[in-house]
Amino acid sequence: MLICRTLFTAGRRSLSRRRTIPITHLRLYSASVNPPNASASTSSSIDDDIKRLVSTTDIHDICTHYANLVAKLKQAGKLGSLPTRQILNETQLYRILWLLARSGRPPDVQMLYDILLDMPLVLGLTLTEDTHTAILRGLIYRGEIEVTRRWLERMPKLPGHITPTLKHYHMFLKALPDMDVCTLRLMRSIVKNMRPVGCKPTYETYEIIWLNRWALYDRGDKVIRPHAAAVLFDDMERDGLSYNPSFAEVLFQEYNKRGLPLYAEDARNMYEARFLAYDTSASSAYGQMDIKLMRTAQSKGIRSAILLFKSWKPHRKPSPEQIRTLLRHSRQLADLRLVEQEFDVKCNVIHWSHLIVNNTRAGQLREALSIYDESKLAGIIPDTYMTSPLIHALCQSSFAPAQEASVNKALEIYRDLCSAIPSEENDTDHSAGPEQEIYSTLLRGLATVKYPYKYIDVAKEIMNDMAARGITQDDSNTASSIIALHMRNASNTEEALDVYRRLKSPLDAKGYTVVLNVFCKLRFETTIQIPSLKGYFEIVKDMRLAGFNTTVEVYTILLHRLSSTATEVQQNDKFPDAPSVIEALTRTLRRVHDLLSLDASLSPDAVLWNQMISTYQRLGCFADAYRIWEMMYISGQFNDSSVSVILDACAFSGAYSIAKRIIERLMRDNYRFNTHNWSTWLECLCRLGKLDEAIQVLCGEIEGSPQGVTLNAEHVKLVYKFAKSENREGEVLHQIREKSPDLWATLPAHIQGLI
């Protein structure tokens, strides 16, 4: 992006700027020695600019008033009529910095540099860590991951030479899950670059990463397997961190509170095995030989680990804990059988559970179920640690329908557990019987099957069992699942809302989100259902009254549903009365847009506006989509995805001239397009019948060709696909070979061989 480039270039331009204010004016400026009238006039004019500057939130006005203020201060310096008081206080300045950073436009980033240079010389303020905190908060609010990262890494070289602190980095890391793209790889990369700028990561740093990863899981991402956490352990070793029991507990608890007790134990044991080996003071807690056994079994196989144990303790049988160590990473039933055979022992439920959980976390559900069936034949009595990962894997969904066969198998395993540990026995050993998470998982699975009416009686059975075992039903997960199940069995919207009103009290923020998602997707008598805005925003209102903030997700759920419904109608040629449905969807969308504009509790971000553009485009309302883009462009509230979304809208609306104008404006702004932007632009040109122009862009022949981005084989394949429909594929390859040899050299041999 241009902002990234600006961070490198703007500072150099500012540093070379000639200064006219004497360096002696650090905070309070000397009294005027000019005639009274001239002094009064200058002071009054400066006061007016200060008042306008600190009272506006408009970025254009801020830039204008600040430039005027600095110019007048310089002129006053020449006349000797500088004010005798502080120009701006820190609170006022930090607000200005935050607004400029939040905007993120190239001239506004340039203004940030100018202000940093002006602070000691013109404004009489000292650059501190808090100065950068204000800027970083603005960049983070805008969702600029790379720009924020670059700012942190450049801080020691910026005016003031401030070293970023843990507070700065932790603030950035904590905000990442709410930005466009957050991955474990990205977070690790950010932390890796902390030390070179003088900021050493701590256990709190890695705890934030771990909690962030779970935040992504809670929003529908894949669960992080314990073995994947090993990359964090590598980073922690590189940073010289030793064993920390608090971090071990965090590893354990994040799995355990989500009903993954075996994963929890595995993660903690892996951490202890890695770090206790280097901590002699704690090595007694986890024997060195046990660590060696576990590592041998993992790297060389179970047979080698058995031989190691026999050489260590000849003629001795391993204890249950040592068998557990041997099978820690095993997935094969043959490993367990070999241990039983070699030592003449019988493995217990914990040992069998290791095989099951290792297979489920590796995605081998069929193998895990097979081992479970074998365990029953071996006389193993199941417990919650054995059954929980199986039930979770069978019912797992992120609002996606669960398969009836999978849910039925989960119910079979649940009933095995209930039979093994009846409710009257559960009082003395609650941990062995079904726990809260198992019930919540089952109910969630029942709520998402295609025909939920089949499972109403089963849900009642589960609820009765919960009551018999003394397990509360007043938690959000259980309540949201029950509401979802009954809503999907309702015959109309009002009946669905009645269910919600009766059962809503335990819902938390996540529970409300689940209910909103289900309500949006309700269908009665198999017909397409446009969500009732009255009912939807009744739930949103209750969410606010319960003390939970409205998030952009409240609107994106609704927009996604309108968009998918429009696609369903448009792709069905036999759909009755499609035009009237599209018209109704359009009216609903515009009403949602109005409600969003009036929602004072929410500041829409680029992600939400992008979805709004996409939904308008799906409904054929390109003019509305383009107006949103114009608003985003003028305010600077757009990101890379916004550019791709509007270009895609132009392509499907036949708006070549508008797409061209968008590209030209961004090029004039020195906007730095990413690889996906160029893919979208090339596809836009091809869809609009501009194949020749697409080829020229691909070969770098015209203005509007990529700068700072390397096109690759995927871009060639995209243009080639459209050229093939015009029987011009050979021409495309010939031109690339002749005009862009570097790009040609990156193409696979089978593509080059086509000509």
UniProtKB/TrEMBL annotation:
PPR repeats lie at residues 348-382, 605-639. Pfam families: PPR (PF01535). InterPro entries: PPR_P_subfamily (IPR050872), PPR_rpt (IPR002885), TPR-like_helical_dom_sf (IPR011990). It comes from the Eukaryota. Belongs to the PPR family. P subfamily. PANTHER family: MITOCHONDRIAL GROUP I INTRON SPLICING FACTOR CCM1, MITOCHONDRIAL GROUP I INTRON SPLICING FACTOR DMR1. This is Pentacotripeptide-repeat region of PRORP domain-containing protein. The lineage of its organism: Eukaryota, Fungi, Dikarya, Basidiomycota, Agaricomycotina.
